[in-house]
Amino acid sequence: MASSSASSSMPRMSFRVFLSFRYEDVRHNFIGHLCKALDHAGIFTYNAIDIEESGMGEDMSITIMKAIEESRVAIIVFSEKYTLSSWCLKVLAKIIECKEQKDLIVLPVFYKVNPGDVTRDASKLGKNLETAKRWKAALYYAGDLFGWRVRRGASKLGKDLETAKRWMMALREARDLLGWRLGYESSEATLIKDIVKTISELISFDVYLSFRSKDVCENFVKSLNEALVHKGINTFMDSDNLRMGHDFPPALMDAMELSRMYIVVFSENYAESPWCLKELMWILERKNRRKKLMLPIFYKVAPGMMRAKNELEEPGTVRAQKEPGKVKSYGEALEKHKVEYGMRKVKKWREALSEAADVNGKHLPDGNEDDWIPRIVEEIEKMIAEIR
User: Fold this and answer.
1) Is 75 helix (H, G, I), strand (E, B) or coil?
2) What is the largest CA-CA distance in the chain?
3) Alpha-carbon span 203 to 41, nearest angstrom
4) What is the separation of C-alpha 345 from the centre of its chain, rounded to a whole number of angstroms?
5) 172: buried, middle or exposed (CB in 10 Å: 19+, 13-18, 0-12)?
6) Is the pLDDT of residue 200 over 60?
7) Which of 48, 87, 162, 334 is deepest in the core (most CB within 10 A)?
């Protein structure tokens, strides 16, 4: 198994891939490259250190089993020594259990081994089961002669027997699943690209969260995302890590296209970001042409600040004091963009902001998250129920 870690700085989505592998077999290259490629595609991964090899306790084991239950996809990397680890087999059995009970998608990778190698390991385990059965029968017989202490040992062996049986069945089932085989002459880069492509095609999101990360990423949006995930709502949380160059990266485009609805968090410095403005135009186009739902959240910003050229404000709005060198006005931010992007584009951005301001949403004048997040989640649940 792998180390307890997650993709880059913070999870961008609830879509999670659990990676099961034997640490000493694949730790140096393949797993590291695969995790990096999945992270670049915006896919959150979970890996967990082999409990036996790391010396970690039962608490970590419980955490890892819970991570499997919360995952959407499990990738099992069968390597030369995978089946020699009782921890790997325990995790494998849990993965197969979740496949049957929770519709977990399981994808095996045969890393420099053949599927038949897994079969042979299962056969060896089967022979051990037969031996264990004979031992159990002998212990029970001896228990009748010598007392309950011996029979207690037989009972423990019975539990071990059931565990081994589950492991054998899990190995056989995983062996027969559709997956990938990497031979000694195969290209790891090509295989990793294929794995990422396959998983990306499986993704669909209930909610796409669009926001200005410098304003609210570490507090409000993160808390909102966690609350949505807790309710079983599949989210994609945009990240500055995905924004490179002038064009939308494929991972971002795919996530926006595959989302059922959009949550746009308008914050104090939202209009400073050309990325946010481009994203808003794209979202509004999907809303208008494809009838996708959009819920704007006005975080410490009055909707009136986004309207018209003269930035009409709602009655009673109190303007924050402007700090030196810091833009507080949407109008000022748009004026600055004219230099680089031109008047025509800025005009479209201004119109997009005005349109978004007229969409029914939630206004958080004081940013009190504890009060507002449950209400927002409830509203999102209702909206999703209409389109599911």
Assistant:
1) strand
2) 96
3) 11
4) 34
5) middle
6) yes
7) 48
pLDDT bucket at 3, cuts 50 / 70 / 90: very low
- Rounded-to-integer distance, Cα 94 and Cα 69, Å: 8
**What class, spelled out in words, does domain 205-387 have in CATH?**
alpha beta
Cα 30 → chain centroid: 20
C-alpha to C-alpha distance for 1 and 22, rounded to whole angstroms: 5
Does 16-199 match 205-387 in CATH topology? Answer: yes
Mean pLDDT computed over 48-60: 55
Q: Are 296 and 359 in contact (CB under 8 A)?
A: yes
List all residues 6 or more positions away from 301 whose beta carbon is below 8 Å from its beta carbon. Answer: 266, 267, 268, 270
pLDDT in tens, 155-174: 444 455 677 777 777 777 78
Residue 294 in contact with residue 264, Cβ under 8 Å? yes
Lowest-confidence region among 316-320, 326-330, 381-385: 316-320
Q: Quick one: tokens of 97?
A: 């259990």
The length of the chain is 388
**How does residue 59 score in pLDDT terms, banded at 50, 70 and 90?**
low
Q: Which of 195, 206, 218, 196 is nearest to 255 (CA)?
A: 206
Counting Cα atoms < 13 Å in the Cβ hemisphere of 77 gives: 29
Q: How do residues 218-272 score in pLDDT, each as one tens digit?
A: 688 989 999 998 888 888 886 554 554 456 666 677 778 778 899 999 998 899 9
- Residue entry with tokens 């209009």: 271
Q: Residue 95, exposed/middle/buried by CB under 10 A (0-12, 13-18, 19+)?
A: buried
The domain spans of the chain are 16-199, 205-387
Tokens of 370: 């504890």
Which among 371, 347, 363 has a CA at the least distance from the CA of 305? 363
Superfamily of domain 16-199: Toll/interleukin-1 receptor homology (TIR) domain (3.40.50.10140)
Crossing angle of helices 30-40 and 188-202, in 10° steps, is 40
- Contacts of residue 370, Cβ cutoff 8 Å, sequence gap at least 6: none
- pLDDT higher than 80, residue 188: yes
